[in-house]
Design goal:
Blueprint: H1 2-25, E1 30-34, E2 38-45, H2 57-77, H3 83-106, E3 109-115, H4 125-151
Antiparallel strand pairs: 1-2, 2-3
Helix pairs in contact: 1-3, 2-3, 3-4
């Protein structure tokens, strides 16, 4: 039940931020949040991260849906007992669902966060959730492997 609440909150925040970005930045304006570090700049991304598979909306919808079904199975049917693994999947699921909603409704994903100190693609809250979830899961797997090898010595 807690996982569903967090997914609802994360997806709601993502959709709210995308709505606000569309309302206030779509006319071409940009905003500096922290000088020389991060700003807001509205862009529509027709692909996945780094605009990979640009224009392949139907393919991205299908792949994302399959991934989300797998994660939903892991979270709600298999019921993973490890909290770190659960948190990882909740973050990835929430971000994937947030971007899937954009693709289904608009054919593109709204991106708005921009690093000002480096040439890096503009991204959104859902992307942050996915990256944090993947990083957390990678750390969990590496730690588990390390602990397993250490106990087998």
């Amino acid at each position: 039940m807690h996982n569903l609440i967090f997914i609802f909150i994360f997806v709601s925040v993502d959709q709210l931020l995308k709505y606000l970005a569309t309302q206030y930045l779509a006319s071409g304006g940009s905003v500096t949040l922290i000088p020389k570090f991060i700003g807001l700049n509205y862009i529509l991304n027709p692909g996945a991260g780094f605009s990979i598979l640009s224009g392949k909306v139907n393919f991205l919808i299908i792949i994302t849906s399959i991934a989300l079904l797998f994660i939903a199975y892991m979270l709600f049917i298999k019921k993973i007992p490890n909290k770190i693994e659960q948190i990882s999947f909740v973050l990835i699921f929430s971000g994937g669902l947030g971007n899937l909603i954009d693709r289904v409704l608009n054919g593109v994903v709204v991106d708005y966060f921009e690093f000002l100190f480096i040439d890096f693609p503009i991204f959104n809250f859902a992307d942050i959730l996915i990256c944090c979830g993947v990083a957390l899961y990678a750390i969990y797997v590496l730690k588990s492997e390390y602990s397993s090898k250490k106990s087998n010595r």
